[in-house]
Specification:
Strand content: 15-25%
Oligomer: single chain
Mean pLDDT: 96
Bound molecules: malonyl-coenzyme A, adenosine monophosphate
Strand order of the largest sheet: 2-1-10-9-11-12-13-14-15
Number of strands: 25
Radius of gyration: 23 Å
CATH architecture of one domain: 3-Layer(aba) Sandwich
CATH class of one domain: Alpha Beta
Structural class: alpha/beta
Largest sheet: 9 strands, mixed
Low-confidence stretches: none
Amino acid sequence: MTNPLFDALFAPHLGKDTAFLHLLDGSTLSHDAFLRMAAQIGGVLDAIGLNAGDRLALQAAKSPEALAVYAACVQKGVIFLPLNTAYTAHELAYFIENSEAKLVVCDPAKEADIAKITARTNARLMTLAADGSGTLMQAAAKQPETTQTVARSADDLAAFLYTSGTTGRSKGAMLTQDNLLSNSEVLKDYWGFTESDVLLHALPIFHTHGLFVASNVMLLAGGAMVFMPAFDPDTILAHMPRATSMMGVPTFYTRLLDHDGFTREAAAHMRLFISGSAPMLAETHEQFEALTGQRILERYGMTETNMNTSNPLIGTRKAGTVGFPLPGVELKVCDPVTGAELAQGEIGVLEVRGRNVFKGYWQMPEKTREELREDGFFITGDLGLLDEDGYVQIVGRGKDLIISGGYNIYPKELELVIDAQPGVKESAVIGVPHPDFGESPVAVVVSDGDGPDMAQIMAACNVELARFKHPRRIIVIDALPRNTMGKVQKNALREDYKTLFTPKES
Ligand code: MLC
Ligand code: AMP
């Protein structure tokens, strides 16, 4: 019986008492202990009747148990649907309903709210707290520490990751076993990860970066992770002496650079610092190198495609670029209108094809057709070029998207909420440069009648949108700038407010 993802990431570690997760309380969980925990959770999934192909939605704090839920899903062929812990009940209702999740696991503090949703959808609800308590692990404790692995093929689905869209409706990206496995195999080799590596893991585990890049690669390599509930520079520095490597979003690096304890000596033994999920300023690369003597390795990916490009482990890591297409990934720069491939140096939309590219959006065949060509190329919506040395440079986005601290915020989602408030005629949400988060959303609002009620807008945001998506400023103006076609010129607005969070350059 085979299950390619389980056989590669998890099965080789059965019975091994090598360190897998170093926890902040000083304890270490071995590979085998982790797999026994996952098997017990797998037993719970069997007991409540989850079958291969059913969905399990998890919104829970980062913990070994939460990661073991992922392992259990892979072992049982259940499709894992991790959800950002910041999502409100309003947002969760959509994901749970849309995915038709059969089991939802949530923090005990959210149980009452989520029970209202699962009552409607008939999903089973269990709880998992940050310390591992809750009904899930109570049930798991009664299950055996070994369990049957369910057979799966490479093309079977392993996970759904929801990603918002330019229309404001989230889409469930369907990722197969092979999408995840092929990418982790490539990354492990490309970045040289082995069982001797210890990764500083401070990313959330509900997105591609923390789950499929960091955790899958380390599982495949057989190394260990210092598993931190969240990013905190003091904690990172305290654990750096035992680590070999770190993966993070640019905000991790700018915050580390601002910390007095981050010195050349502190980083001297580290073999690799990797950044991605958002553009890193060339200036951050340079400051990092000036301080540590090391160059950050930047790579580029997305939910639908896993990782597409990377700077090399050995060779020049070029600041301001995301490196070369990874082995097995074909990348083209295309004309945004005709789709024709452009010449080296010309700016166009990046399109990618390979085993890493997802299968489509859950129950959205039209959206899938719009973005995934019949020949297998996925239209990323990112604008870029191939430079004279073949490095990919991302120069902007064709899609209306803001990335704040590595989290995606689709302006349309905010505009729909703001436009529905009294006193608002219309709004345009733009990303403005921010020194900590890279970009932050600002709402530019045109008033209607007596004008917008700011408290009311924020109250609506509180109910409908996760806090990280909220506009950091609301600016009222007389009219939005439009072109002759009547389209709002967000570029003009971005120009007007570009120094809102950063001092003007002299
Ligand atoms: C937290 N807050 C944010 C935020 N994160 N606001 C805007 N953008 C963010 N990214 C807000 C909270 O709501 C709260 O608001 C306040 O900041 C403090 O919360 P916190 O939890 O203490 O935040 P902090 O620890 O400072 O978190 C910042 C961060 C975190 C950068 C460490 O956001 C993070 O870990 N980001 C990583 C995201 C990631 O993994 N992305 C990968 C996506 S995968 P208030 O007002 O209530 O105080 C992908 C594909 C690929 O993109 O290529 O990898
Ligand atoms: P997500 O949908 O959360 O997976 O976000 C994917 C998007 O993040 C991509 O389409 C890019 O716009 C952006 N992204 C990821 N890595 C990088 C990077 N290294 N540089 C610039 N943008 C990036």
